[in-house]
Amino acid sequence: MRTLIDIDDGILKEAMDIAGTRTKKETVQIALEELIKAKLRHKLKEMAGSGAVEMSHSELNRLRHKREGLHRSLSSKN
Q1: CA 59, CA 33: separation in Å to the nearest integer?
Q2: Of 26, 2, 3, which Cα lies nearest the Cα of 12?
């Protein structure tokens, strides 16, 4: 989907430097993915102790490492 947005050049340049990206599109894509992940982590933290998530910290870490490994293997195929 094509979208026209006005982004401050200084902020975009800083984001590109921090992310190590070469294109504006790649930078915005990564920024949106990181925003989504941060919001989901926040929601999960809010659920801690509520009984909605019945996993230990070590079980959650194991799942996170498994997911990260899967993401790395998928990224290396591109």
Answers
A1: 24
A2: 26
